[in-house]
From TrEMBL:
Pfam families: Pyr_redox_2 (PF07992)
Annotated SUPFAM superfamilies: FAD/NAD(P)-binding domain (SSF51905)
InterPro entries, per database record: FAD-bind_Monooxygenase_sf, FAD/NAD-bd_sf, FAD/NAD-binding_dom
The name this protein goes by in its record: NAD(P)/FAD-dependent oxidoreductase
Classification via PANTHER family: FAD_NAD(P)-BINDING DOMAIN-CONTAINING PROTEIN-RELATED (PTHR42877:SF4), L-ORNITHINE N(5)-MONOOXYGENASE-RELATED (PTHR42877)
Gene3D superfamilies named in the record: FAD/NAD(P)-binding domain
Residues covered by the FAD/NAD(P)-binding domain: 3-211
Amino acid sequence: MSRVVVVGAGFAGIAAALALKASGERDVVVIERSDGVGGTWRDNVYPGVACDVPSHLYGLSTHPWPGWSRVFAPGEEIRGYLERIAHDEGIDIRFGTALIDARWDDGWIVRTGSGDQGGRATGDLRADHVILACGRLTEPRIPELPGLETFDGPILHSARWDPSLDLAGRRIAVVGTGASAVQLVPRLAAAGAEVVLFQRTPAWIVPKDDRAYTPQERAELADPLAAAALRARLHDEGEARFASRSGDPGAAAEAEAVARAHLARQVADPALRAALSPGYEFGCKRVLLSDDFYPAVASDAVDLVPSALAGIDDGVLVAADGSRHRADALVLATGFASTRQPYARLVTGEHGTTLDAHWADGMTSVGSTLVHGFPNLFVLGGPNAALGHTSAVLVLEEQAAFAAALIAEGADVRVTAEAEAAYTHEIVDRSARTPWVAGGCDNWYVDSRSGRLTLLWPGTVAAFRERLALVAHDVRRPSLTPEGALP
């Protein structure tokens, strides 16, 4: 029997393993369905994939890395960073081992299978505690498109990129203008592809100001004090952005002006500029960073269709506005199953209910980490644990430290239905007047089943840290409130 099973070897899983090791816990099994670490940064290999959080803030606080090549790290560098940590720290990871089923029976019984899909059963693990570090952006969302089967070219999601895809001289249709598309489209155009871009809703885009670090800068950042100072500055800048993303009128107006000026500088055509102008509040959708998307769209290489792709008619792409377009390949940059997490159907709690059923009206939790009816289970990066203004790794590290501390203390980690209802109400109340809920757009932060904000934490990192400390206090001393409920 293992004390702890960690599911996943992306940022969350590595953070959990490190926190457990730091707490003195040695009886840990990390399972990973794929053949390597990295999570999102292992799966996404499309041209141009990179982080939109500064490199020196996106890494783990315990493992600064002076060798980042750019202000915003390319995806392959981030994966390499996590691989180095796993190797250097001696984290024991069982690769090719997928979660098939986890259920509570006076402890956790975790069934595993081989390969990404958990094909052949590989055995059961018994554990006192389970940490779900499965990631929130793992299962591509494939839109229902009538006639899709009539398209005779390659069809792929941006998160399942085929490096062998021939781009030069090909007409490539891209569906979506979110975070992946704004990185991908300029690279397709630069590779000689002709791009037809289906845009359902334009995004707010601000300058990225990315650049390569000089050798001198990298040498200076090898000094731990210099690296810590840079991280502290980036942390403060990120926290300051919360105001503009969450609906502070003055901060939002200032940020919106920056975005509009950026669009005006890079797109001269008034009609195209109008098509690229959002009609919802700043921050309602994820604010994107790019210096090359607008120039690419304004070039002859990209044909913007300001309409969603509605279907395919005998191989021809038909937009919602009725226009018809031909393409040699179809790329779906359509996001992920974020509000309904795929792993949830595999986890059954003490009352015989799956996590998916428990979350039938949207994800709920206590402290964005614990769930009623699922003892000694910690969910990292799950309900209300994403951030819209700074590095989500900061929250993952807080959750990992929280879990490791309670496990090290031998706490029986349970929360009541009342505590979960109270925390859910708190999230609803804190988010009710934010752009994420009331900003006039559809986004992946809000669960359509309930209309609740279920992905984002509606506060700063500092506020999350303080809130999680209150949860830890109540878990440790449940007698202070009725049945352990939060005050």
